[in-house]
Amino acid sequence: MKRPELPIQMVDLKRQYARMKNEIDAAIQTVVESTAFIRGAQVQQFADHLAKYLGVEHVIPCGNGTDALQLALMALDLKPGEEVIVPAFSFIATAEVVSLLGLKPVFADVDPHTFNIDPASVEEKITAETRAIIPVHLFGQGADLNRLLGIAKKHNLFIIEDTAQALGSTIQLKDGTTKKLGTVTVIGCTSFFPSKNLGCFGDGGALFTHNEIIAQKIKALANHGMEIRYHHDYIGVNSRLDTLQAAVLDVKLKYLDEFNAARKRAAAFYDQAFAGLDKVRVPVISSCSDHVFHQYTLVFDESVDRDRLKERLQEKGIPSMVYYPVPLHLQEAFHALGHVPGDLPVSEALCKRVLSLPMHTELTQAELEYIAGTVIEEMKI
Q: CATH homologous superfamily for 256-379?
């Protein structure tokens, strides 16, 4: 098993750029020559193209994925102290914006197989103060929106989809239709952080909605609360996607399906390679959602020293990451909510047992064979 000559990357943005270099460089140069660095024509052009790709009426670009989540909550007029249910096994941004707006994050546990928010746990957490649910379509596949939509309808709740890790993935709904994630509920949000499936060359984000009134309000909120210049209807924020980033994204959007297909091929190779291991579980694909593998995450048996395995892989030139080492309900930032170990056992167990392997669009066959072979070899030790 030969070690590849080039260093293995968790995400290889350099090689990805190389294949689109001429197109991206030309797009950037056009913006530079126009000097329209803020709200240039390419921003609306990209928004229109992304709306067509997703099959959604409105795409509103913004500064980053965290801003997108905050703007979504602001647009729904939630009141301080009201509750928003979020998954405990996720990145902090989803819960962070809830707290920043004076709302109360309520943590639900996740499904042990898909890692997505567990509808049964969601329903247990609903109170008279609950107003919204934010499912995170984690690692590249959809949360169980069919069940969540039923819960939301029963309790008159909003659902905001966090699609930062699953752009381009689809979900089949109960009525037989298939929709892109992020377009099913009242508002969808995404991030264009460079490592995302569709990533820019800095920060960027967007919101999606079919609702004209909500779309107009989000646009105003993201622009200091104004629709007419210097006339402020709301207390807003300053959050915009700059023209250079929009130009880069518009080029890369054309390749998104190709990129996601490459991720799926890499995941399929990993799946087959690890099929015979009895102390590790490969990612489980939901029966109703596509999976675009933003991350390829293994779950190890309790008998495996996950952290030592991570160290041994690094020694052999294979990076890996723990997404996420501490569940949100046990983070110091949320200490005031009074959670203790054991409150959300699935999330807590996953944090101790998950490990994500390199996953990106440029993985070669040699790299995949070396990564998988090394993991298998180390598992025998």
A: Aspartate Aminotransferase, domain 1 (3.90.1150.10)
